[in-house]
Amino acid sequence: MSDASYRDAIFSTPLDKMARFSFDETVVACFPDMIRRSVPGYGQILGMLGLIAQRHLRHGAHVYDLGCSLGAVGLALAGQLPKDAFSLTGIDLSPAMVERARETFATECPDHDIEVVEGDIRTFDYQPAGMIVLNFTLQFLSPEDRDDVLHKLYNALEPGGILVLSEKIKAGDEQDNAWLVERYHDFKRANGYSDLEISQKRTALENVLVPDTLEAHHERLARVGFARSLTWFQYLNFSSMIAFKEK
Ligand code: GEK
């Protein structure tokens, strides 16, 4: 069994002092299991990225995958597009994630032009790109940093370029939000997480992952320059949007 298939049991025993959630080696070892059991629609979103790229990406254009973790977005694109269709830079702050992602690309798709950089997406010097993906990453930035980063990304996109933004979201209405969160916890329970794991993870993520409403996301996308954005996917309180830079 490879490391990548370790089961996520990080929050399965009572922890005295709840540490803030961080993307360290413990998380890396069980990350694929964690994200599939914790993010409704994760697989479906990845599966659509190649189809979206086939429709919108100029042949040979550059793609950024921000907060690439173990490289799932790059792998999804490499699985659906030939090697000359695109080049990709994955960026992640976590050295443990970057190391593993590099190994994975070298083994799984050595012929594709994919690099992984250890860096901060808030300060990265972006080159022109045809597609930028933030798959569950913007949510980890402080609300103040979100506008700045998206503004930079808008500027880096070529005319006709697209930004795909997947996020955990909250509903504007308190009652609706409570329903979504409760059903999300049912989803996690059905995927084998205990009540203790669910509540401890929730505490660890408090103030680390601060969700916005879909409305706030679309307003921000418009504010930084995107003429058009739409929500193309939602499963409970998890969603994916696409924003288009005019040609
Ligand atoms: C996937 N996209 O599998 N700069 C760079 N990376 C960051 C920053 C930052 N400022 N802040 C957080 N990260 C992936 C999943 S996970 C989502 C993305 C999750 C990184 C962090 O190190 C982690 O690897 C990633 O963003 C978020 O499609 O765990 O729910």
Key terms:
single chain, 247 residues, alpha/beta, Rossmann fold, 8 helices, binds ligand GEK
Instruction: Work out the helicity level.
Output: 40-55%
For the biggest sheet, the summary is: 7 strands, mixed
Low-confidence stretches: none
Which CATH class of the domain at 42-170 and 211-244 is shown? Alpha Beta
**Content-based structural category:** alpha/beta
Q: How many DSSP E strands?
A: 7
Describe this structure in words.
The structure is a single chain. The chain is of the alpha/beta class. It has a domain at 42-170 and 211-244: Rossmann fold (3-Layer(aba) Sandwich), CATH 3.40.50. 42% of the residues lie in helices and 21% in strands. The protein has helices spanning 25-38, 42-56, 72-80, 95-108, 143-156, 174-190, 195-205, 214-223; strands at residues 61-66, 86-92, 113-118, 129-135, 157-168, 228-235, 238-244. A seven-stranded mixed beta sheet has the order 3-2-1-4-5-7-6, sandwiched between helices. The longest helix has 17 residues, at 174-190. The protein is globular and about 50 Å long. It starts with 24 loop residues before the first helix and ends with a strand. The structure holds ligand GEK. Ligand GEK is lined by residues 23, 35, 67-69, 72-73, 91-94, 97, 120-122, 135-137, 140-141. Residues 23, 35, 67-69, 72-73, 91-94, 97, 120-122, 135-137, 140-141 line the site of ligand GEK.
